[in-house]
Amino acid sequence: MDIEKLKLEAQNKALHIADVSGSGLFNADCMDILPLIPDKSVITISDPPYGLNNDFDIIESILAEVKRISKMSILILDWRNPMRIIDDKFAELVWEYGWISGGRTKSKHFYPTHNTIHFLGDDLFEFDTKNGTIIKRQKGFSSPRQCSYAKKSGHPYEKPLALMKYLIQRSQDEIILDPFMGSGTTCLAAKELNRKFIGIEKEVKYYDIACQRCGF
To answer: Is residue 40 part of a domain?
Structure first.
């Protein structure tokens, strides 16, 4: 995967491109950038926005591209994401984050205190067979709205840096792609682990935050 070539090909697709040391961030719709990426050339680690479940055609098109370009995909989902699109999953983990601020109510309904992490494609992940399939609530693995940077950026569903590092460290040494990078946690985790990365975000506000966090 030649990230420098991708940057050149994407010049007319993205509003802005930030690059350094063989990695890049793209201010663009992911469906304008993903078709430019070669088959089976990245590992995708992403937290797709919950709103995508309102349009199955959109998310199925995106997932088809993600499957094409990824040796392995790791998708963090909750009950608001459509499950029927996951047809080649080989494993699943549960991330137990506890109560999100404001989640405790007197309602008779249950409120989720976890996300599921779905693994698609080739098995290129080192699973923790000692502790099983649950990533238990622990220091650094806080709930999305309690993440230190989320309080500054206002991004409501930012995932903890420790969680993204955990997933990257246990994945094979490939380029990391996040087509929904939000405020850039996946890319920052990859950078701190000396892994090359590609991040795509169409919202200018969050793209700018991601650039700042990643040192672009």
So the answer is: yes
Q: Residue 4 falls within a domain, yes or no?
A: no
CB neighbours of 79 closer than 8 A, spacing ≥ 6? 112
Kindly report, residue by residue over 186-208, the tens digit of the pLDDT. Answer: 999 999 999 999 999 999 999 99
pLDDT of residue 86: 62
pLDDT exceeds cutoff 80 at 154: no
* Domain span holding position 103: 28-174
Contacts 24+ apart (CB under 8 A), 154-162: 155/182, 155/183, 155/206, 155/209, 157/47, 157/49, 157/50, 157/182, 158/182, 158/183, 158/185, 159/47, 159/76, 159/185, 159/186, 160/185, 161/185, 161/188, 161/189, 161/192
- CATH (domain of 106): 3.40.50.150
Within-domain flag for 204: no
